């Protein structure tokens, strides 16, 4: 990873926050994407336009993957690629919530090497670079080390606790909590505020790329629902769920998941 990549993402995320907060979520123009792909607002598009102009100009050899840009196969020819969600948690943004985030990452040969998750309305900037640890507002962070799954607090949408996802239909006995932004959920696990997170449905790369590195650099493990490491810049940029936690909690969750269950949870 070129040394300036993380500062580049941090500066871009801060600028994204300035742009997004100029819009009022409840009054920002909003459209529904085709095929039930969710909402998009004028704030998403304004942030994406700035990032798409600024980041590739700074790194002309990198590919580009963003939720709000039509995807092309050109990025597959690049060894490094930007993976961007201009606003993760668009529904929350449109409702006037403070839990939406900008999620910016760079992957090299499928592995994320620099990452930022920024919540401007909460003044929270999570960042990580490969081999350099993870930080929140410049201070080092680490995953929690709760010893037993029964003591753990896990971020997950309620459908993930449907019995068919778990061996013999036995849902683990942990405390469930929820945040609407998937990127924020992952950042909170990296911070140690929660002990793990899971989403068992297919997940877009732009929602999870930055959080993957932040959790790993904070001492945790990220995998798909089959326990395999996450790899990015795939031809179809969607991964088979996310399971993230400290080593022990990750192992305990994975051991109780039904490997034959289809991923339909949120």
Automatic annotation (TrEMBL):
Annotated binding of Mg(2+), by residue: 67, 85, 87-88, 207
One Gene Ontology term from the biological process aspect of the record: signal transduction
Transmembrane segment boundaries: none
Cofactor: Mg(2+)
Family assignment from sequence similarity: Belongs to the inositol monophosphatase superfamily.
Record's protein name: Inositol-1-monophosphatase
Enzyme nomenclature, EC number: 3.1.3.25
Keyword entries, A-Z: Hydrolase, Magnesium, Metal-binding
